[in-house]
Amino acid sequence: MSIAKTVVLITGANSGIGYQTVRHLLASERPYHIFLGARSNDKSQSAITRLVEEYPRTSSELSPLVIDLESDDSIAQAHETIKAKTDVLDVLINNAGVELDGDGAENGLKTRQIFDKTWSTNVTGPYILTSTLIPLLLKSKDGRILFLTSGTASFELSTNEEFFLNISPEAGWPKKYQRELPSYKSSKVGLNMIMRDFYRILKNDNIKVWTVNPGFVVTGLGGNPETLKNLGAGNPDQSGSFVKDVVEGKRDKDVGKTVQQKWLYGDVLPF
């Protein structure tokens, strides 16, 4: 008797943590049907080609999915694409995100545009996508929603000068440059509240909800990889493995919280 595949959608899965999560799911003993979300069909198909070459004997399958979180039409079309292949979604991983504080101005964006685009992708898009897909998640026997957040969104850690770039600069204005992330950090605070609302709203619907802090790792999100490494960024492979663990039930005791790999600040990120 064949085992039914767990149906998973991962946004931003063509690179970074999303891609590494797909890799670990393909290597799992459990069979999955993974919708690999990306902003273009070429990006999704290219990632699938690489993954099939790496895991030719996997019991899981991959389907391309075009999804742009800044477009309601794209979200609606992604919903139709999924429904054409399945009537149930077991796991939604809201992984896609942007960080424009570092180089947004260099690319011609004004401050308001940086904030608007960051919140549209990191908060509004995931909210609309999740709301759109809830009817499919409700049909799952073990529905799960994961939102990838950041340690920089913790109010408690923001008062700790030993935590990531929290040192107060010298008096005066404008400040000498240091890596400030105002739009990114605030968007992840907003995403945390989105998670808390969905956790409350879906508590009696057999859908588990978390935010996941993947840790500070090298991705295409935050600029030059070498700069990130110099700042202490780790390997996204470890983050992908951790996300897989959440999907497979290893953090079910912490539903409704921000889970993370055990480190200096514990295995649950303080809000």
UniProtKB/TrEMBL annotation:
GO terms for cellular component: cytoplasm. InterPro entries: Fungal_SecMetab_SDRs (IPR051468), NAD(P)-bd_dom_sf (IPR036291), SDR_fam (IPR002347). GO terms for biological process: secondary metabolic process. Coiled coil: none annotated. Signal peptide: none annotated. Pfam families: adh_short. It comes from the Eukaryota. One of its GO terms (molecular function) is oxidoreductase activity. Belongs to the short-chain dehydrogenases/reductases (SDR) family. This is Short-chain dehydrogenase. It comes from Kwoniella dendrophila CBS 6074.
